[in-house]
Amino acid sequence: MMTVLPPESSSGELFQLLNSVFSIFNSVVHFALQLNDWRKHKVSMGIRRAKITDVRRIKQLIDENMQEGFMLPRPLNELYENVREFFVWDEDGLVQGCAGLHIFWADLAEIKSLAVDRTGRGKGWGKALVSACVNEARELQIARVFALTQIADFFTGMGFEQVEKNQFPHKVWAECMRCPKFQDCDEVAVGITVCDPLDSEPSFAHYGPKSLPIAFPNPKG
Hints:
Layout: H1 12-43, E1 46-49, H2 55-67, H3 76-81, E2 86-91, E3 94-105, E4 108-116, H4 125-139, E5 144-149, H5 152-156, E6 161-163, E7 188-193
Parallel strand pairs: 4-5
Antiparallel strand pairs: 1-2, 2-3, 3-4, 5-7, 6-7
């Protein structure tokens, strides 16, 4: 802090005034530096797009959740290939959660690999990741979003509803064939309609040899 000491003269009041001005200036500078540090800290906390440097941490989160029986494993090379699909929750520079939006067709996308670190559960990070995926689907005008999950209550609390798995063509089940539980799957399908389907684009329901109606609930409220 800069300090000016007034000499013993008639100009002492002027120097006292200058001291006050410098004191206020130093306080403003100190506050501005603190505000800048706070902004930097705030920016590093929350949802952002995944980067290549996040992939190994995403793999670690998926593996930890897989060991708890919440999801399927995903090979590291597959995560690198699909890193553009992922959002992450960044907490002080450490990825503490992830989720990906995988596009199947013009009107259908899946929320995949939703995983949150054990220390962050119950803090709303999972909901924020799902919301990021849903919002992106809406921005892309993809009408329907679904997920295969063991925690249906989590999704229904966000406006999803349980739907019949036999609505989905076989292409959706390609990954499931790697699962040891494939013949006795304990996951359920949940889905939501996030926007009106595009009339100009073909529906996934009419793609391939099996034509099935894909009827997802509209968002509530």
